[in-house]
Amino acid sequence: MFLLRCSLLVIAIWFAGPARLSPAERLKRFSSKEYVALIQRLSEDPGFFDSDNLVSNESSYLQISGLLEKFAVKGGVYLGVGPEQNFTYIAKTRPHLAILLDIRRQNLLYHLLLKSLFDRSKSRSDYLAHLFSRPRPRGVPGPDRDIGGLLLEFEKTMPSEQLFRKNLKQALAFIQKTCRFPIYEKDAGAIEGIYREFFDQQLSLRFRSFGRPSFRFYPSFKDILLERDLDGQFGNFLNSEADFQFVKQLHSRNLIVPVVGDFAGSKAMRTVSEYLKERGETVSVFYVSNVEFYLVQNGVFDRFADNVQQLPISGQSLLIRAYFRFPHPQRRPGYVSATLLQRLTRFIENRNAGYYKSYQDVGLRDYLAAE
Q1: Coil, helix or strand at residue 337
Q2: CB atoms < 10 A from the CB of 107, how many?
Q3: Domain ranges, residue 246
Q4: Closest Cα partner for 31 from 195, 215, 242, 181?
Q5: What's the structural domain count of the chain?
Q6: Per-residue pLDDT tens over the stretch 34-62
Q7: Residue 369, SS3?
Q8: Residue ranges of the alpha helices (H) in 105-237?
Q9: Dihedral through CA 38, CA 41, CA 44, CA 49, nearest 10?
C-alpha cells in the first residue's frame, strides 16, 4: 500500500509538472542570444515618423508622479514608446521587464546606444559624461546629490571630440560583440548620427520634427532633467542614484528590450501579447506618449485599440498618455501638454462602448485626476 501511494504521488507530480514560479522568479535575465532573438521575434518592418525623438518634448511628464506612488504601481511588465523618458517611468514603477516599441528602427538603435553607455557607467555622473562625451567631473557628486547639484559639477567639464570617437567605437563594439546584435553599415551611420547630435547640441538638445515647425518652446534635455513634479520635487531618474542603478541593472540583465513596432500594426503588438501570455506576465504600465493623436488622424485608432485589447492586463494596469494640441483641465499654466493616467480596463470599456469618436474624446473622456 505504501509503495502504491508513493507511485501515485510520483505520477501526480509528473503530470502536474514543476512548481509554478512567479514572473519575477522566471525573469532573472536574458542571455545575449535570447535578447537578440526576442527583439527579432517581436519586431516588424519599420515605418516613418517625422521627428528624431532623441529627447522628450513632454515637459509635463512628472505630473503623474504622485498618482503612480499613490497607486503603488510596481512590478509586472512595462510597455513604452520613444526616448529616455521611459527610464523615469521604469524607475518609478520598478517592472521586471520593459519592452519599448517604436515604429522607427532609429529608436531601436538609439536604445542600443544608450544601453552601451549604461554598461560603461558606474554612476549617474559617469552616464552623463559618456552621453555627452565629456571627462568625468573631478569633484564626484555623492549618491545623495540631486540632479541640480549633479549638473553643476558636470558643466564644469568640456566636451571632447577625442572622447566622442572613443566612446562611439566602444559603443559599436558593445552592440556587435557583447549584445551580438547584427548591425549594418547604415545602422552604424545612424548610431553615429544620433550620438553626434548629443555631442553637438549637448544639454541644449531638443525634440526636432521634419517637415513641420520645431517649436523652440519644447524643453531642452537640461529642462527635462530639471523638471519638477506637482510637489516641487525633482523626479527624473537621474535625480536618484537608486533609480539610475535600477535602470542600469535591468539593462545589464537584458530586460529592457527595444522593438520596432507599429501600435496599429498587424505583428509587433500582437506578438508582444502572445509572448507575455506564454510567460504568464501582466502589463502593469503602458506609456503611449501622444501616439494616439496620430492614430486617430490616420484612421487606424481602432486597430490600435484592438491590439490593446489583446494585452494581458489586470484591473490595476495603467495607461500613461501625453495630451497635446487641445486644452485640458489637467494642463498646468505654462505647459503645452498634460500627462494623464487611465486604467487600461477603462480604456477598453470606453472604446467598446463607442465613446472614442475623436482625439479629444480619448483625452477628456476618462482619466485619473492629479490632486
Answers
A1: strand
A2: 25
A3: 23-364
A4: 181
A5: 1
A6: 999 999 999 999 887 767 789 999 999 99
A7: coil
A8: 105-120, 124-131, 147-154, 161-173, 185-201, 221-225
A9: -10
